[in-house]
Specification:
Layout: H1 5-12, E1 15-18, E2 24-26, H2 29-34, E3 47-49
Antiparallel strand pairs: 1-2, 1-3
Length: 53
């Protein structure tokens, strides 16, 4: 997929997906682990990382 580091960071670094409505959000990982971040659309605190194919 991504052949160089800049593209891989742009696609995967600090991007999380809501488990309910599947929208993407770019936030720091420490805020997600602390539970301070929720989804913009459905307000769910359940986020997961983007899966690499």
């Amino acid at each position: 997929m991504a052949k160089f580091i800049e593209a891989e960071n742009r696609l995967f670094k600090n991007i999380f997906v809501c488990r309910k409505c599947k929208t993407k959000r770019r936030v720091p990982i420490m805020k997600v682990l602390a539970g301070k971040v929720s989804c913009r659309n459905c307000k769910s605190p359940d986020l997961r990382v983007v899966k690499k194919k």
